[in-house]
Task: structure prediction
Amino acid sequence: MSSTQQVLAAGPSTLNRPRRRSWHPHLPGVELTWAIAFIVPYAAVLVAFAIYPLAYGLWMASSPSLYLTLFASDEYRDAVVSTMLYVGIGVNTSLFFALLLSGFFMRRSRWVKAMLVVSMLPWALPAQTGFISFHWMLVYWGFLNSVLEKLFGIYGPDWLSHYWLALGANLVASTWKTMPFWTLILLAGRMAIPQDLYEAADIDGATGFRRFVHLVVPLLANLYLVCTLLSAIWMIGDFNTVDLVSGGAPGSTDVLATLGVEYLFDHGKPELGVAAVMAALPVIVALGILLIRRLQTREVQL
Result:
């Protein structure tokens, strides 16, 4: 009897019987070896460049006496105030103007689409180049004062030598850099709103400002809050803007990030520098937890 006849004689149970896999999940095999080979490099990079530096930083800043010295410092208290102003004003300003610009870019004109592309350039350009340009424009003999003098006969101040002017320069530079990104995010959120809702609002007579308040704002509220939390986390750790635009000058415009680097390189006290940065960790963790909760809430609603 041939093999085909034997299989047919055995009945359908033999035909439907699944093939036995050559690899058992509980036994080591080629697949497991390759999986380990792929995981080990990633795990090593994670340990070397993420876990170890963070653990070492926490160990350096674990002494309570460091924080007593830090909290007693006038530089630290000034940096805390400057950080609160920088983050509080910067986040809300950037997100508010991004919300308004996202509505403008909803227009379907070709020149508006071209303006959208142009508006993305600050976000695409290297941050260091843009912030250094801001710095040289605002020095006493820089571009801004030269324009004021030649066009209006006004002798401008030394913008980076006054606290509020230097803080304002940092805020303008940060908003210029980050606002295009948030505009694009909020524009995507606006475009996700079904067109039927806009048409229903038009039928009900809710146009212009009323449609914005009663339709757009409620539907974008969760996205706006998520962007606000994420922007706050980023700005708390922002070093480039303050360092390159105002240089922390006058000294009270230093934020926690620049103060930590100043302790490290200028004063030769790395433990105080790490402690200055780690002092913001509870706020960042709280914002991160709130951000994750908002994202989970959004998933449940979907």
Notes: The two ends are 62 Å apart (CA to CA). Residues 2 and 8 are 10 Å apart (CA to CA). Residues 30-60 form the longest helix (31 residues).
